[in-house]
Design goal:
Helices cover 65% and strands 0% of the residues. With 251 residues, the chain is an all-alpha fold. α8 (137-159) packs antiparallel against α11 (199-230) and α9 runs antiparallel to α10 (184-192). The chain binds protoporphyrin IX containing FE. Protoporphyrin IX containing FE (HEM) is lined by residues 55, 58-60, 62-63, 66, 119, 122-123, 126, 129, 131-132, 136, 139-140, 143-144, 146-147, 150, 221, 224-225, 228, 234-235.
Length: 251
């Protein structure tokens, strides 16, 4: 008990948590505002916006799936080599040799399918609640970029098993990119690192899938959540809530 009282007064504690522990309303607000995780929600929230039908938690579920994908993807990286002679055998090793390898692979695969579906449903929810209207139009655009990144992550991951499905799927997809006006051939060349789906393409898709796209997506999500907060929290099922022009609702 003594320790509980003494700890919040130590220099170490105060360097991390700036607020005291007195049970005043002001302090309760400071506890929320000083904490990066609690701060994601506004200090004051309308009760209506906490109901399930307000957001169906779709944005949060998308975020959780992204977390599951990151962790399972990192574990898969421990067993996978992005090289033409090895990639397919690594998949077979995961299936038949690595303990729980099938579970790990399926977890990653189904979470990826789930994320595409959930992000799309989240977009529909935002649309039908008319949450794309000012002042949230910028966040809608950030959301569109997040949807594209989610789809690109799925597409780049598709090549990595280096089986027939992957090879021909990417052949068809990059040929479609070539049909694009003006820069089509250049985009295909850039994606594949050449003119054929080979060693260079596998390496490029691997780097895009494991490093570049997840980093950009994580940055985009940070901006997205920050904007939700700065635009005055979620609209919820009402679709009417707008902060007055030039006034942010949250400090
Ligand atoms: C990686 C994908 C995404 C993640 C992780 C994500 C996450 C979130 C979260 C956690 C919220 C707050 C709670 C909620 O509304 O569920 C939110 C709100 C919002 N999202 Fe997303 N989102 C993503 C994609 C999108 C897409 C594709 C769009 C639209 C094109 C979009 C547009 C919005 C808008 C406008 C809001 C504010 C909603 C409101 O004020 O009611 N987001 N997002």
């Amino acid at each position: 008990m003594e320790l509980r009282k003494a700890l919040p007064r130590t220099r170490l504690w105060r360097s991390i948590f700036r607020h005291g522990i007195s049970p005043t309303n002001r302090n309760r607000v400071l506890v929320v505002m000083d904490n990066v995780f609690l701060h994601l929600h506004s200090a004051k929230v309308r009760q209506r916006n906490l109901e399930v039908t307000s957001t169906f938690f779709l944005g949060a579920i998308a975020l959780i799936l992204f977390g599951v994908l990151t962790v399972s993807g990192l574990l898969l990286m421990l067993y996978y080599h992005p090289s033409v002679p090895q990639a397919y055998f690594d998949m077979k090793e995961l299936q038949f040799v690595v303990s729980n390898g099938v579970f790990l692979r399926n977890l990653h695969r189904w979470s990826a399918h789930g994320m595409v579906l959930v992000v799309f449903l989240h977009m529909l929810r935002v649309f039908f609640h008319r949450a794309f209207r000012p002042p949230r139009e910028f966040n809608w655009v950030v959301g569109v970029v997040l949807l594209l990144l989610t789809l690109l992550l799925s597409y780049t991951g598709y090549l990595l098993p280096w089986d027939q499905l992957a090879f021909w799927g990417v052949s068809v997809g990059t040929n479609m990119a070539r049909a694009m006006p003006l820069l089509g051939s250049e985009v295909r060349y850039l994606l594949l690192g050449g003119n054929i789906v080979g060693e260079n393409a596998l390496l490029r898709f691997y780097v895009l899938h494991c490093v570049l796209l997840p980093l950009v997506l994580a940055l985009g999500v940070a901006v997205h959540l920050w904007r939700v907060r700065k635009d005055g929290g979620v609209v919820g099922s009402g679709g009417r809530r707008r902060p007055r022009a030039g006034k942010e609702e949250e400090p």
